[in-house]
Design a protein that fits this description.
The protein is of the alpha+beta class. It has 17 helices and 18 strands. The chain has a single domain, classed as Cytochrome-c3 Hydrogenase, chain B, CATH 1.10.645.10. The protein starts with a strand and ends in an 8-residue tail after the last strand.
Length: 577
């Protein structure tokens, strides 16, 4: 092989809302990626569009930041407005919000695992690019075939084949059922308009909860199988070749806002965010070098900074920041979102200078990722969740999934892995689906109980404050972290900043030269696919690393290697940057 180092450009990695490209240099001789750049290449400018408007407009406009995660942006924006207005929703509104969002996540998780990431591990991909692995799969029994119904690993892989595989096709039906459940709570989906400051404007009847419960029972049957499909696939690849543990691997640095509030504790205020944050079903937290360093939402917020050294933006005035303190008097960084000013400044792409439309968020100036597995990881280490169906602590989580329409009650256990890689992100996503299904079940019972007691109020009125206030919505998308930072003055939006999971994960290098999470994960990825010449190389392992983050690429990815366009099948969720 005379040519060893090749330039690989994954461009465009198109999105429903936004676009992502990825550029790498790969040494095919040593089978390693030697250079990686994540390039979000589409500017949307919601922060500029919202500025100067009524906060009610901010909720509607920002919810359009994503066409798939149809309610999370609305919820997050509403939480920021509620914090600014100082209003607490009634208990039933908080419970129903949890019901709506858990159903949305149950829709989102199978979408990623079977329609988006799944084809990377299908018979079509594996038999072509790793025929020796495919042969092993044909000879290996699936350990949990009694649960998911596939006798061999090869049967699982065939079921993941795009457009024809049983698991692939079944996911469409399951996502429909989950979306119906969301619509029952919010009135419509996506982009519901019933999520409002002070609660929900949905008309509630016992029939609403009955319809939701009926669909949830069907979803429970499905999720029990989902978990063990990914258990068997992950363990098979590790045994087939331990080097798969290195695909998409990066340091154990993670962050999450936590999600799903307990109405008995939640009041939505910034002052009490540490208290109600730690009472969430998923615990907020930051993990650095594998160690949990905080679970306090206020400390998490204070540690967030965004940098534009390698982004197509002009830096704001950091010498004279607008706010030197948060509402509690804690010191605030000039680079904190409340101090930001979004000023686009496009220039020619230059890897040493500017090459991305995404800013570079950092926590305590460290590179951290977010993903559904991060929610599990933090919750398992913190050990603060002790509910009827969920127990956490000691680095593990025990989930009890109730009896479904066709399956008995099942107890499953997730333990914190020793590494964070592409396979653990996907496996964690399956357990995440089980976790949120358990929350959905518990919250549905609480909704019935509140309604039985006559506590059917879903909205609290409020007065619009005219003084300047800082607020933030701490919520999450299917891929974890979501915050909307807002400054209001005379009940007009003075500043608005949205930080999504992809903002963190797809971020470029920061002022200290630290690559973003995508870049780190790809740079650490070995090349395991088989090829006879550089022209035959397809970049499957690189794509597995990127897609494990749920990086929101639609329909097809085109890989350009030295001017030659190759097609690689890929689909993902369409969430915005």
């Amino acid at each position: 092989m005379t040519r060893k180092v090749v330039d690989i450009s994954i461009e465009p990695v198109t999105r429903v809302a936004g676009a992502l490209a990825f550029h790498t240099k790969v040494d095919l001789g040593v089978r390693r990626v030697i250079e990686a750049h994540s390039v979000p290449n589409f500017f949307r400018g919601y922060e500029i569009i919202i500025r100067g408007r009524d906060p009610a407009d901010a909720m509607v406009l920002s919810s359009r930041a994503c066409g798939v995660c149809g309610a999370v942006h609305m919820t997050c924006s509403v939480m920021a407005v509620k914090m600014a207005a100082g209003v607490t929703p009634p208990p039933l509104a908080t419970v129903m919000r949890n019901m709506g969002e858990t159903a949305e996540f149950i829709y989102d998780n199978p979408l990623h695992l079977y329609l988006l990431a799944g084809p990377d591990y299908s018979e079509i991909a594996v038999s072509k690019h790793n025929p020796e692995i495919w042969q092993m799969a044909r000879e290996t029994k699936a350990p949990h075939s009694d649960i998911h119904g596939f006798p061999k690993i090869s049967d699982l892989m065939e079921a993941l084949n795009p457009l024809s595989g049983r698991l692939y096709l079944e996911a469409f039906e399951i996502t429909r059922i989950a979306r119906e459940a969301v619509s029952l709570v919010y009135g419509k989906y996506p982009h519901p308009s019933t999520i409002v400051p002070g609660g929900l404007s949905t008309t509630i009847t016992i029939g609403t909860f009955n319809g939701y419960y009926t669909r949830l029972i069907k979803l429970l049957d499905y999720i029990k199988k989902l978990v063990y499909v990914w258990e068997d696939l992950t363990e098979f690849f590790y045994k087939a070749d331990p080097m798969y543990m290195e695909v998409g691997r990066r340091p154990l640095n993670m962050i999450t806002t936590g999600i799903f509030d307990d109405y008995e504790v939640y009041d939505g205020t910034y002052e009490n965010a540490g208290r109600w944050g730690e009472a969430r079903y998923f615990t907020p937290g930051v993990i650095l070098d594998g160690q949990l360093v905080t679970t306090d939402l206020i400390k998490i917020n204070l540690g967030v900074e965004e940098f534009v050294e390698h982004s197509y933006y002009q830096e704001w005035d950091v010498k004279e920041p607008r706010f030197k303190e948060d509402p509690l008097g804690n010191p605030l960084s000039p680079y904190h979102p409340w101090n930001e000013d979004t000023k686009p400044k496009p220039v020619a792409r230059n890897w040493r200078e500017k090459y991305s439309w995404t800013k570079a968020p950092r926590w305590d100036r460290k590179v951290v990722e977010k993903n559904p597995v991060v929610r599990l990881w933090v919750t398992a280490l913190a050990g603060k969740v002790n509910r009827d169906l969920i127990k956490s602590g000691g680095g593990k989580i025990v989930i009890t999934l109730p009896k479904g329409a066709a399956t008995p009650e099942m107890e499953i256990e997730w333990k914190t892995p020793k590494i964070l890689n592409a396979f653990e992100r996907n496996r964690g996503r399956a357990y995440h689906a089980a976790y949120v299904a358990a929350i959905a079940f518990m919250e549905t019972l609480r909704a019935y109980d509140l309604l039985k007691k006559g506590r059917n109020k879903t909205w609290t009125g409020f007065e619009k404050p005219m003084e300047r206030r800082l607020s933030v919505g701490f919520w999450g998308a299917g891929r974890d972290w979501l915050t909307h930072h807002m400054v209001v003055n005379k009940w007009k939006v003075e500043n608005y900043q949205i930080i999504t999971p992809s903002t963190w994960n797809s971020s470029p290098r920061d002022p200290w030269g630290q690559p973003g999470p995508y870049e780190q994960a790809v740079a650490n990825t070995p090349i395991l696919e088989k090829f006879s010449s550089p022209d035959d190389y397809k970049g499957l392992d690189v794509l597995r690393a990127i897609r494990s983050f749920d990086s929101c690429m639609p329909c097809a990815v085109h890989i350009e290697a030295r001017g030659r366009i190759l097609k690689a099948e890929a689909t993902t969720c369409g969430c915005s940057l």
